[in-house]
Amino acid sequence: MSTSRAATAPDATLALLGLALLVVGLVAISSASIEYADWHYQNPWFHTQRHIIYLMIAIASGVVVYRVPPQFWFDTGWIWLFVALALLILVLIPGIGREVNGSQRWLPLGPFTLQPSEFAKMAMVIYLAGYMVRREHEVRHQWQGFLKPMAVLFAATLLLMIEPDFGATVIVVATAFGMLFLAGVKLWNFMLVLTGALGAMLVLVISEPYRVKRLTAYTDPWADPYDTGFQLTQSLIAFGRGEWLGVGLGNSVQKLFYLPEAHTDFVFSIWAEETGFLGAMAVIALYAALIGRVLWVGRQAILAENPFGAYVCYGVTLIFAGQAFVNMGVSSGLLPTKGLTLPFVSYGGTSLIVCCAMLALVLRIDRDTRLNPRKGRRK
Fold it and tell me: Is residue 274 part of a domain?
């Protein structure tokens, strides 16, 4: 391969890490959903077939995003934010949004559904990255530069909580605060607003009895293993059965209608049961390597004086790391039960498409950084 072609090719390490997680997800979902699909749809490969369709759409979306210059996202960030907020409003309209288990989070699109909260995460990252470049001085030195994105964040979180989707709210808020912190906001301003946000989160938790139940069940799931602690106890049993090497792919017992949401929110538990401690650690290592590589791309963008690309990378890192940590933390009993997908792995079309799109955007930023001459540190 010539030097010019090598420079324009996607980063092989980052692409292979994403592909490895996609393969893990396909294998894990196929195994975890086979009995559930056979019982409910009389087709053991129902979810596998749909997931393959999602994979094809996600990869195609990633290819499209990779071909779009980052300048396009910089110029249109506010449009994507507006579209995301519009979708979050649309999903709340009775008769349009679909309600599942008391939450109205999905827009039906024929045989498939769209989850606007997933799209809102990417839109928020792109908008904030562009805003922090355009208003760099305000963000770092003036209150209004910090409060303006907080107003946008408040609107998004309000819509997310009406659904309700507490997990997506936490990820969006944490990502926004992390990006603003990395952009260099004044520490005093940051800590003051952060304290207020944490207080608001606490109020939201104690304002709903079911959230309080989840919190208390998490502290001692075995106190009520057949009701509030049922999901977590079954998940922990799956981890325990896995031991070091697992029971073998396809041999999980917990997926036989013991563990609810085995192919979605708790797919990592079934993976740990079937592949054991070593298999679980391999997935964690893949995430650690992926996150580290995206951070490295962000660092290179900063050195090439491309702050927009760097902020996008940092935002994507926070989303991937946050969701992976929360999902695996919930599965292992480290965190209270909360419905968040495991990036690239859990069953869910919108999540898969958005994750591939974000990874493709990072790959394009890396490509453009390598094509541009290194200018050194910004002064």
Answer: yes
pTM given for the model: 0.93
Least Cα distance to 331 among 285, 284, 294, 289 occurs for 284
Instruction: Name the H helices within 304-348.
Output: 307-331
Q: Provide the number of structural domains found in the chain.
A: 1
**Inside any domain, residue 189:** no
For 264-279, write each residue's pLDDT tens digit.
Answer: 889 999 999 999 999 9
Range of the domain at 18: 9-130+229-371
Residue 191 covered by a domain: no
Q: Is residue 26 part of a domain?
A: yes
- Complete DSSP assignment for 157-217: HHHHHHTT-HHHHHHHHHHHHHHHHHTT--HHHHHHHHHHHHHHHHHHHHHSHHHHHHHHH
**Per-residue pLDDT tens digits for 118-176:** 999 999 999 999 999 998 888 888 888 888 898 999 999 999 989 888 889 989 999 99
Cα radius of gyration rounded to whole Å, the chain: 21
